[in-house]
C-alpha cells in the first residue's frame, strides 16, 4: 500500500503537495468557519512561500479579508493600466492573430492587407466603443474569421455604420 501512495504523490499536482505540506505542520491555523477555506489557503500559500511562521488565526479572518481586498484593488489599477495600453493590446492581438492564421501560406500582399491591428471606434448611434476589424480577422472561439464589408459581424455598431453610410449617401 505504501508503494501505491508513493506513486500518487509523485504524480500529484503541486496543490496536493502544498496541502500535504500544510497538514503535516503542527503550527497551521485551523479553520472553524465554513466560509474561510479559500482565504486560509491563500494565507497558507503566502506564508509558506515567504518562509514565515503562521501568525494569524481564524479570528483574524475579517481583517485578512479586508487586507486582501485592498491589496487586490491596488493591483487592479496597475493591471487595468497594463492591459489597456496600446503596446499590450498590439502584442496580445498579434499573438492571437498569428495563432489562428498560418501567414506563410499567403502572399505578402494578403498579409499586408489582412494582418493588421484592429481599431477602437465609437458607435455613432449608441456611443459604445467596439473593435473595428475590417478588413481583418475577428475571433470566433479558437479560430479567426476574415471579415469583409458584407460579413456577418456580431460586433456592436457594425450595422449602425453601414446604416449611417447609406442614409448619408442620398443626402449629398
Automatic annotation (TrEMBL):
In what residue span(s) does the CxC7-like cysteine cluster associated with KDZ transposases domain sit?
103-158
**GO molecular function terms attached to this record:** cysteine-type peptidase activity
Q: Which GO terms describe its biological process?
A: proteolysis
Domain named Ubiquitin-like protease family profile is located at: 23-68
Keywords assigned: Hydrolase, Membrane, Protease, Transmembrane, Transmembrane helix
Where are the membrane-spanning stretches?
Answer: 6-23, 32-50
Describe the family membership recorded for this protein in Swiss-Prot or TrEMBL: Belongs to the peptidase C48 family.
Question: What is this protein's name?
Answer: Uncharacterized protein
Provide the species name: Synaphobranchus kaupii (Kaup's arrowtooth eel)
Amino acid at each position: 500500500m505504501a508503494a501505491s501512495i508513493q506513486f500518487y504523490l509523485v504524480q500529484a499536482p503541486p496543490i496536493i503537495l502544498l496541502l500535504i505540506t500544510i497538514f503535516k505542520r503542527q503550527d497551521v491555523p485551523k479553520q472553524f468557519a465554513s466560509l474561510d477555506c479559500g482565504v486560509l489557503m491563500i494565507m497558507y500559500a503566502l506564508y509558506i512561500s515567504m518562509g514565515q511562521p503562521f501568525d494569524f488565526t481564524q479570528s483574524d479572518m475579517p481583517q485578512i479579508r479586508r487586507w486582501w481586498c485592498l491589496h487586490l484593488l491596488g493591483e487592479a489599477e496597475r493591471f487595468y493600466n497594463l492591459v489597456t495600453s496600446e503596446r499590450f493590446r498590439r502584442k496580445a492581438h498579434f499573438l492571437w492573430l498569428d495563432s489562428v492564421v498560418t501567414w506563410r501560406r499567403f502572399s505578402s500582399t494578403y498579409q499586408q492587407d489582412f494582418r493588421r491591428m484592429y481599431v477602437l471606434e465609437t458607435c455613432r448611434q449608441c456611443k459604445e466603443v467596439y473593435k473595428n476589424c475590417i478588413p481583418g480577422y475577428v475571433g470566433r472561439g479558437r479560430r479567426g474569421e476574415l471579415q469583409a464589408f458584407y460579413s456577418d459581424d456580431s460586433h456592436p455598431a457594425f450595422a449602425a455604420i453601414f446604416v449611417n453610410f447609406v442614409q448619408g449617401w442620398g443626402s449629398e
